[in-house]
Amino acid sequence: MKNPFDLSGQVAVITGSSRGIGRSAAEIMASLGAKVVVSSRKADACEEVAAAITKAGGEAHVIPCNIGRKNEVEALVAGTLKKWGRIDTLVCNAAVNPYYGPLGGLPDEAFDKIMNSNVKSNIWLSNLAIPNMVENGGGSIIIVSSIGGIRGTNILGAYGISKAADFALARNLAVEWGPKNVRVNCVAPGLIKTDFARALWEDEKNLKPRLVTTPLRRIGEPDEIGGIVAFLASKAATFMTGTVVVADGGVTIA
After folding, report:
1. Which long-range contacts (CB under 8 A, 24 or more apart) does 106-111 make?
2. Whole domain around residue 91: which residue ranges?
3. What are the strands of the beta sheet with 244-247, ordered from one edge?
């Protein structure tokens, strides 16, 4: 039996892949044989990741992109097709959260930025990448969401709303494109030790009660999510679509 986790021959575009979960996904997918496009706002940070992947024997290409700008999103997809001629997996990982606090104090500008970057950009990316996937017999889209889309919170409400919207986006795209063999799934991480979530896990007052109520009694590491992304892109997950894979150490069930 062939290894169902082998990604050889795949081309994967991963947004926000210069650090954290996105970088982990890029490195793991490349180690499994995928050609990966490393993308984030800063080209130099992307080049560092691509160099590490190449040194480890993988294949990586850099295309910087600010996901909040449609022209740059279009250039990311077009650049990938120009380089490798196809897109098999799209990982929508990049996200923003410019506001911490109750919804009563949420500025319109902050909410617009959150929804544009965390939801609308995923629609742009998907609509641009899917036609090529269909031409090639199918593909996979993985949206890195959050358990913030499942739970209520008094400080991350706007972010949580955007992440809940990503669940709905995945379900709707899965229904629309399933007949063409395009799968769309979400990963919903809990608290992961990334720079993006640093304000949460570096705050001892916040972290201590979180650990006490988490069955595994710890927060997650980027590779524990990157591996799930790679799995969802693999043949091992070809009967999964429209679903949300929760990886949170058990915090949402405790």
Report:
1. 106/157, 106/158, 110/158, 111/158
2. 11-253
3. 59-62, 35-39, 11-15, 89-92, 139-144, 182-189, 244-247
212 neighbors 249 (Cβ within 8 angstroms): no
**Per annotation, catalytic residue among 84, 159, 167, 231:** 159
- Helix, strand or coil, per DSSP, at residue 89: strand
In sequence order, the 6+-apart residues with CB closer than 8 A to the CB of 208 are none
Instruction: Say which CATH number the domain at 86 has.
Output: 3.40.50.720
Model confidence pLDDT, tens digit, residues 187-227: 999 999 887 667 666 777 778 888 899 999 999 999 999 99
DSSP 71: H
CB under 8 Å, gap of 24 or more: what pairs does 195-199 form?
Answer: 195/19, 195/20, 196/19, 196/20, 196/95, 196/97, 199/100
What values do phi and psi take at 15, rounded to 5? -80, 155
* 89, 141 Cβ separation under 8 angstroms: yes
Q: Is residue 135 part of a domain?
A: yes
Which H, E and C letters describe 157-210, residue by residue?
A: HHHHHHHHHHHHHHHHHHHHHHHHCEEEEEEEECCECCCCCHHHHCCHHHHHHH
Between the CA of residue 158 and those of 21, 97, 188, 221, what are the distances in Å? 21, 8, 16, 24
Q: Render pLDDT for 103-162 as a digit per residue (tens, 0 to 9).
A: 999 999 999 999 999 999 999 999 999 999 999 999 999 999 999 999 999 999 999 999
Concerning whether 99 is annotated as a catalytic residue, the answer is no
**Residue 2 falls inside a structural domain:** no
1 domain residue, yes or no: no
Residue written as token pair 């899965």: 174
Asked, for residue 4, whether it belongs to a domain, the answer is no
How many domains does the chain divide into?
Answer: 1
